[in-house]
Amino acid sequence: MVSMFKVRRWAAAAATVVLSAFGIVAAGQVPASAAPNFQVPFQCGVTVTAATFSGHRPANAVDFQKSGITGMPVIASAPGTVTRVANEGSTSYGRWIEIDHGSGWRTRYAHLSTQEVRVGQSVSLGTQIGKAGATGGVTGPHLHYEQNLNGVSQRVVLHGVAVPYYGKTNFTSRNACGGGGGNPYTPQQVCGSAFSVIDSAALGDAGTTYLLYDGSSGRNCVTTLKATSVGSPSPVSAFLEVEGSARATDSGDYSYYAGPVTKEAASTCVKWGGSVGSRSYTSPFEHCG
Ligand SMILES: [Zn+2]
To answer: pLDDT tens digits, residue range 40-75?
Structure first.
């Protein structure tokens, strides 16, 4: 392993020297590093068609197609931090999201019908970020997807398999199918479709606690989704405390999640959080609007 590492280091350094000699590497630019193990941005087991075609902009982007794709959950294809949650209206990307995965790598997800994360939010592999749709400049519903390195669109690789250019190729998602993920539930499925995720906190690799809000009813909802021992009963909890009233908690040995814990909290600060096993999170009083 050590010698392999040295060889790779040497190769990377040599590549940088060669590129520098041609003046290609811009000052301050980070040399290319191994891409994250990007996964299909749909839930485990879902089969989608990855379409690539000349004239696509950018040329290396992939359009994921599937009948009935509108409303299907779109999930992060690697862990990262949300950098853009934008809406171009009826042009271009329409509703789109960008995630920064570190080392210069970012992914983009466009034409979404809903956006369910906020800028600065950290997401795990498999975290639902929105739903597929047909917003922006499209002729039909699909998910436009990009893997970019230092702002330049790269040929897309999904769970280690290079997407063919140009053509249509079916991929079945392995995204968060097991190990660190595999929870078949989404926060909205637990709390109800009227709710949107407004905050979340990762509990290491053990799971994630989510805070959701329904603007029409003024209600908050908290749920904790397990990412370990998924499908087997183990300790998990979720709580919600509206400032000035008692904390409501749901805890027990559950197979998939704790909650939903819901309370009316319009114009009132809330403290929220939860736990999986020994990992826990407690927020300050926040989201007071
Ligand atoms: Zn596209």
So the answer is: 999 888 899 999 999 999 999 999 999 999 999 999
Q: Is the pLDDT of residue 125 over 90?
A: no
Pick from 106, 139, 172: which residue ends a domain?
172
Q: Rounded to the nearest whole angstrom, what is the distance from the C-alpha of residue 53 to the centroid of ligand 1?
A: 9
Question: Per the domain annotation, does 36 fall within a domain?
Answer: no
What's 94's domain CATH number? Answer: 2.70.70.10
| The Cα angle at residue 23 between residues 18 and 26, in degrees rounded to 5 | 105
Ligand 1 center from residue 282 Cα (angstroms): 40
- How many angstroms separate the alpha carbon of residue 260 from the centre of ligand 1? 36
Q: How far is CA 127 from the centre of its chain?
A: 4
221: pLDDT confidence band, cut at 50, 70 and 90?
very high
Look up the domain containing 102 and give its range: 47-172
**What is the total count of domains within the chain?**
2
**Is 132 contained in some domain?**
yes
**The pLDDT of residue 209 is above 70:** yes
Could you check whether the bond before residue 166 is cis, i.e. omega within 30 degrees of 0?
yes
Neighbours of 74 (CB within 10 A): 27
Q: How far is it between the farthest Cα atoms of the chain? A: 66
| Residues 165, 225 share a domain | no
3-class SS of residue 20: helix
